[in-house]
Amino acid sequence: MFTKTANHSDAAPTGRLLAFGMWLRRHQAFVRRLQWAVVGIYAVLLIVPVVMPLPGLAAHIWNNITVFAQFVFWGIWWPGVLVSMLLFGRLWCGLLCPEGALTEFASRHGRGRAIPRWIKWPGWPFVAFVLTTVYGQMTSVYQYPAPVLLVLGGSTVGAVIVGYLYGRNKRVWCRYLCPVNGVFGLLAKLAPMRYGVDRAKWDMNAATHSHEHRFNCAPLVPVKNMESPSPCHMCGRCSGFHDAVTLQARHPNDEVVKLSGRTATKWDSLLIITGLMGVAIGAFEWSASPWFITIKQMLAMALVNHNIIWPLQATLPWWILTNYAAQNDVLTVLDGAVLLGYIATTALVLSVLIAIPLKAACRVMGLRGGQAFYHLSHALIPLAACGVILGLSAQTVTLLRADGFALSWVPMARLALLVGATLWSQWLGTSILRRKDGTIARKVAASALFALGLAAPVYAWVLMFWIW
Ligand code: SF4
């Protein structure tokens, strides 16, 4: 529920942000044109590389559409979108996302059915993120255009079908099923801006403004009671409604420290700890890991000793497991099994190594039940976000290095980001614990335990970027 205290620490609506929100509301036609332009660029980058021959050794970003598309999607687009969530909230979703535009368009002309219960299952953001991450690794989505078309294009087709079937002028797909909806929602919790709602003004003006033009909130946000920008696509359509909704600045730590105490859920914790800090780390790391090679060799030896040779030879179609013989890039069934095992084990081990200290911190503070743990897990968002951005930008670095760019500053920049994100998470964790009841000694001990929870994911990134 909205309270004055929840809004108290927000900075007052500042002129420029407020004006930008109102500008967006007045220029929705321009926003729609912008969205269709992005849809066009997205379609070209998605489809053209599939019909072209795979790039040879002489192919570069500037002379080959496939390498260019690879660089744009994984080197700029995705890391850029994640960074934009931290800076502007989900502005990308509301203004530029091609899937959002397409699903809303389909919904405008579709069946308009009621949203079934299965779609509203709160576990989708976690499950969809894990499935797409793992499937992307199995098919080498960062390297080849066909899996890109399958993963991103498949998601787009899903968005259009769901839009066509459910809701009217809505973004049902984005609200419930988009594989990155949960991640975007978590990152937006740290954004220094949001659409704030003055409930007193809303209630006061509701009667006198009864003829005011109604707005369509496509991602189905209950605007009147909106406290967090997590589900809001920042489209600006509600800006100025009842003179109560304004785009405004806020402190980036406020939501996690204060509001998340009430709103954090177990699915958030699963997505942060097991998804972003477990599965994602395993997915980014396996191909660089010497442990992966060792495990594979040990299993291969054991299989040969038992005269079971087929897993070392059998391959699967490219849409299940990487299979590009001409490129000398083929994963056998054994490779695939070790890959899945590696990601699953990494996710499990990291989840345990993160969750146990956090749980212990709650215990030390005398906090029983899940809510305190879910709240504390929100403090991990900066480190989780930094990891995913670093992991994706590793692709950028690889592509640029292959094209001869000298990037000697990258290790230092990575270190600075990792240290900054770790300190930010620690600051949030300590701030959350400081607000709880308890002695200083307990709070110090709980903060130390929280720091211990950060150690394992930090070490995993150090292994990947500096040791292996
Ligand atoms: S609450 Fe809805 S209408 Fe308002 S800016 Fe967010 S997405 Fe747009």
Polypeptide structure, described:
The protein is built from 20 helices and four strands. The chain is 66% helix and 3% strand. Helix 4 crosses helix 10 (181-188), helix 4 runs antiparallel to helix 18 and helix 16 (333-364) packs across helix 17 (370-378). The relative contact order is 0.11. The chain folds into two domains: 21-188, no CATH class; 266-467, no CATH class.
Offer a few descriptive terms.
single chain, 468 residues, mainly alpha, 2 domains, two-stranded antiparallel sheet, 20 helices, 3% strand, globular, disordered N terminus, binds iron/sulfur cluster
In summary, what is this structure?
With 468 residues, the chain is mostly helical.
Number of domains: 2
User: Distance between the terminal alpha carbons, to the nearest Å?
Assistant: 49 Å
Order of helices and strands: HHHHHHHHHHEHEHHHHEEHHHHH
Which cofactors or ions or other ligands sit in this model? iron/sulfur cluster
* Mean of all residue-level pLDDT scores: 93
Principal-axis shape equals globular
Major beta sheet, specifics?
Answer: 2 strands, antiparallel
Pfam families: Fer4_5
Main location: membrane
Domain 4Fe-4S ferredoxin-type: 72-112, 156-192
Organism: Thalassospira profundimaris
